[in-house]
Amino acid sequence: MTASGSRPPRVPQGVAVLGSTGSIGQSTLAVLRRQSQHFRVVALTAGRNLERFAAQVAEWEPAYAGLAGGAADAGYPVGPDVLLQAATHPDVDVVVNAVVGAAGLDATVAALRAGKRVALANKETLVMAGDLVTQAACAGGGQLVPVDSEHSAVLQCLTGRDAGVSRLVLTCSGGPFREWPAERVRGATVDQALRHPTWRMGSKITVDCATLANKALELIEAHHLFGLPYGALDVVVHPQSIIHAFVEFPDGSVIAQLGFPSMELPILYALTHPARLPDAGVRRFDPVAAGPLTFEPVRTDVFRALGAGIAAGRAGGISPAVFNAANEVAVAAFLGGQVPFGRISEIIERTLDDHTPGPAAGLPVVREADRWARGRAADYVSRL
Ligand code: NDP
């Protein structure tokens, strides 16, 4: 975790929500609605959902509002630059990056360089350019705090303890196809893939959960956030999504963080870490209502995207950016009805097989790897 910030905190803290119309964006605004004494919305950005965005702007009256994917006549500034404007706005203290995909990278880096706290949901940022992102935080005095529930769980287990970590175990619901035979998984429909058993999320991450590519993205994210080698990072299937992560300490003790599946708690913690604020809107934990908690190994032979992503993470350099780009293209093609579910991992594996690994020596190199991988994955989409 990159930390810093010698400025005394402003009260209320100014918040920019990038991707405000999405699942995490809307949950963030729900949290901020209850925490108006402590936070005020300074900037909002969205992609294309003009109707929802206009309603949010009317409610929050932010100092800055931009529609990254909007048309020029939308009545707002448009284009990718709006993310940078919002992320570096002088009245913003905390940037909640809830954009989906590679489009979130530059805003994360710019906010960290400008000394902001980044509450990061956009895991693709760290997967593409983890070292460069953490360097940006060190250089600019920014602070990176995870929103992802598993990483928030790890941070909550570690905060206040200076004991060293020997292993992290991230939990994984297993997705909608956890118990399906391999052949049936290969032919799964979009409708089936979007029916996540425990979480309601945007469509890209929901498909990532069905392929388990999401867990590979999260392991790479954890590697960068907590500075641990891949050998110290494990995954276990936990269908109830109640325990979000386990942290094992050098003496063998294990501490876990629990809660009913809701992103509002990790979002709130990313805003307040290391402090905690009372929040009447968060459902209190009840062990009896949670019911039995079970665990299983991952079926890596069926969900091959996980192994491909871990291999890319271990290779480092530009390889995770190639993995991420191939996955984004394959998932978009699946959602658009161009390829069957079973081809997603195949497109990822083939694109990774074709790339030439190398160091991620600067953002232009990462962007070029991303561009190349999108092109190669798109070739496979049209050929397979
Ligand atoms: P959604 O698809 O619901 O929302 C994505 C947001 O990003 C929307 O506001 C969308 O705008 C905006 N957006 C899309 N493309 C662009 C672009 N090119 N430029 C600028 N903005 C864009 O996704 P989620 O909220 O589910 O996920 C967001 C991120 O958080 C992802 O990285 C995901 O992996 C991560 N995450 C999500 C969790 C969840 O529970 N949903 C849990 C943990 C992590 P619009 O809709 O207006 O087009």
Could you walk me through the main structural features you see in this protein, from its secondary elements to its overall organization?
With 384 residues, the protein is of the alpha/beta class. The chain is built from 16 helices and 10 strands. It has helices spanning 23-34, 50-60, 81-87, 105-113, 124-140, 149-158, 182-186, 190-193, 203-211, 213-226, 264-272, 287-290, 304-315, 319-335, 343-354, 363-383, and strands at 13-18, 39-46, 64-67, 94-97, 117-120, 143-146, 167-172, 233-237, 243-248, 254-258. Strand 4 (94-97), helix 4 (105-113) and strand 5 (117-120) form a beta-alpha-beta unit. The longest helix is centred in the C-terminal third of the chain and has 21 residues, at 363-383. It is globular. The protein starts with 12 loop residues before the first strand and ends with a helix. 49% of the residues are buried. NADPH dihydro-nicotinamide-adenine-dinucleotide phosphate binds at residues 19-25, 46-49, 68-69, 83, 98-100, 103, 121-124, 148, 199, 201-202, 204-205, 263.
